[in-house]
Write a structure and sequence with these properties.
By secondary structure, this protein is an alpha/beta fold. Helices cover about 40% and strands about 20% of the residues.
């Protein structure tokens, strides 16, 4: 009954959101951004409690960690969301039917969005701001690793809502328990859609157990194919950036696919990686090409498990191929359909890669690290959707809406 009471309150509050003018929502978001910065000390104290429970070597540690700089960026993203045009009330289609009926297809909120996520307290703000701007109430279920951080952040959000005269039930945080996850996944009639954000294991669990509709924001198993026509200077920068910029995020590089004719250039492509102590799991050809160039303590022989793995750490695999077609086939076999990249100066190969590779984001001569709602100019994001229904790629404001058909008549009846 405890969870049913929460869901009831959120559902009721979601209807009130629909009556708020856009100017009011924007003022709430701007106040929230200010409050996040002014209450930074509270957030950091709570975050330190969470960090103290996690090993520094855990790949999730960097995702969990908040710093003054990251809090400043969170506040900046919130202000950016406030500055964006409302995604609501957009007329997607309009027609006057032969019988005189005025027919419109109009964007509207989902209603109540449930989000299950792991050790990323920034997601709490991202989800709340995007949901408020798109007219959705939200039910949040964070992981136990970030529970103290999430509690403080949600309290700040509720304080701002209350101060602004908005029902604070439009944002609710569930306990960090397995029971809470199960209740959310079966909250039919209360939660309109559930979005999992986290590991492939979490996403699979939600997909297999939810009776509420699910939008998958998938794990990232990202490849970069260095083609036989690839430029070494570009490839070196792209590979290093994709792998080492932030290793614990879903757009980080996991596998370098190399055309076998370019084995002599492999040590140059990998040279910057050793500065970050990146462990390379190389297949037979790549291993022999790197031996003597790359530190042996960082060079491993690849196994079957080296491919199709989201490392989320300073590690990656290398697969060599004899042809463009074999590279595309390898990516098709092991991709999570998140983000894939090719480095090539051959325009035909670049265009063929775009057409043949099935992923939410496909790059030519650029790193997968750009897959991000803010980088795409969308503001904050809910996550990167890897499915094909409703949303694909960075899920931001527009993707937080559905639509309804509005039919205006003047007494017509159907014959």
């Amino acid at each position: 009954m405890e969870f049913l009471s929460i869901f009831n309150k959120v559902k009721k509050a979601s209807r009130e959101l629909g009556l708020l003018p856009e100017e009011k929502v924007n003022s709430v978001l701007l106040l929230l951004a200010d409050e996040i910065e002014s209450r930074q000390a509270e957030i950091l104290v709570a975050n330190q409690i969470d960090l103290a429970k996690m090993e520094l070597s855990n790949p999730m540690y960097d995702r969990l960690k908040l710093t003054p700089e990251r809090i400043k960026n969170i506040a900046s993203d919130t202000r950016h969301v406030a500055s964006l045009a409302s995604p609501l009330g957009r007329v997607l289609k309009h027609d006057i039917l032969p019988n005189g009926l005025d027919l419109s297809k109009v964007s509207v909120p989902f209603g109540v969005v449930g989000v299950v996520y792991e050790a990323r307290p920034n997601v709490t703000i991202d989800v709340a701001s995007l949901c408020l701007k798109s007219g959705n109430a939200c039910v949040l279920k964070g992981g136990k690793d970030a529970d103290e951080s999430n509690k403080v952040i949600v309290q700040i959000i509720k304080d701002v809502l209350l101060k602004s005269g908005v029902n604070p039930d439009v944002v609710s945080l569930l306990p960090a328990t397995h029971e809470a996850t199960a209740e959310m996944l079966h909250a039919n009639g209360y939660i309109d859609v559930v979005i999992p954000r986290g590991s492939s294991r979490l996403i699979r669990f939600v997909r297999e157990n939810a009776t509420v509709p699910v939008i998958e924001t998938g794990a990232g198993i990202c490849h970069c194919f260095f083609d036989e026509f690839g430029d070494v200077e570009k490839g070196t920068r792209i590979i290093n950036n994709a792998k080492t910029r932030r290793v614990g995020v879903c757009n980080a590089l996991d596998c370098l696919v190399l055309h076998r004719s370019r084995l002599d250039d492999l040590h140059l492509l990998c040279k910057p990686l050793q500065e970050s102590n990146v462990i390379i799991h190389a297949d037979h050809f790549a291993f022999n090409a790197l031996k003597g160039y790359y530190p042996m303590e960082l060079l491993k022989v690849a196994t079957e498990d080296s491919f199709g793995t989201e490392f989320l750490s300073y590690a990656m695999s290398i697969k060599t191929v004899e042809s463009f077609d074999e590279a595309v086939e390898h990516i098709a076999c092991f991709s999570s359909k998140h983000s894939e990249s090719i480095v090539t100066e051959n325009e035909e190969h670049a265009e063929a890669f775009i057409k043949l590779v099935d992923a939410a984001c496909v790059y030519t001569n650029a790193p997968t690290s750009f897959t991000d709602g803010a980088q795409f100019g969308l503001g904050a994001e809910i996550g990167i959707s890897t499915q094909k229904l409703h949303a694909r790629g960075p899920m931001a404001l527009e993707e937080m809406t559905t639509y309804k058909w509005v039919v205006r008549g003047d007494g017509q009846v159907r014959l």
